Amino acid sequence: MERTLRIKGKVYPVTLTNSNIVVRLADGKEIRGEGNLYDEHRDLSQPIAAIALDPPAQLFEKTREVLESADYIIIGPGGLHHSILPNLIVDGMQEALRSAKENGARIILVTNTMTKHGDTTGFSANDMLRRVQEALEGVGIDAVIANTGAFSPDRLAAYALENAAPVTMDLEDSHSLLVIGDDLVTDESFLKHGKPCFARHDPVKLSRAVRRAIDRLSMRDVLSDNAM
After folding, report:
1. CA dist 174 to 29, 41, 120, 180, Å?
2. What's the pTM value of the predicted model, to 2 decimals?
């Protein structure tokens, strides 16, 4: 898989179970299958209220081992209800992450730069954190990395046509949660056909933010140990 994706490191699947995403909308309607989540016939004004996997999926054993021995675990960015949450509700995932935390691991959440109509409409960084925390069933997030950079009017207008907007930053640094806010999006000079491109995370900016989060979490751990 590493050769296929042309990346360094190791890639492990979360599960080998052939499972489908099943979401329940606020009006009680159920939708089955990722391909139907944003179907043209779906009422996108109805927010997603709950998500499940059918049949239940089992965590891949090698992935469990890697998670439990990790120092830092990074969640996101990605589609909240069709990418991030389905991976977090796989049977065994919460237990693996809980074990990792007990072994000293720290979990970092990277929030999305923009909302998606019918998925995260009107979401803030805190809304995304809350949904992830609910899926983790008590396993705490140690740090959140969120974009605080501004967008040009042209880019905002392009997203507004899709009923999307920037994910607002409404989190503050605290004793229990480290918050890193910075300009994380690709530069406006990256254009396609003369139009602003997607507001994706800039890999260099994001890697620096992750490094900063790790450094600050490490310092917090040192200070906590010294205080004992």
Report:
1. 38, 43, 25, 11
2. 0.91
CATH superfamily of 61-227: CofD-like domains (3.40.50.10680)
The owner of tokens 């009422």 is 43
| Residue-wise pLDDT tens digits, 174-208 | 989 999 999 999 876 555 555 556 788 999 999 99
User: Strand (E) positions, the chain?
Assistant: 20-25, 30-32, 48-54, 72-75, 106-110, 143-147, 178-182, 191-192, 195-196
Question: pLDDT, tens digit, for every residue of 93-128?
Answer: 999 999 999 999 999 999 999 999 999 999 999 999
Terminal-residue alpha carbon distance, the chain: 44
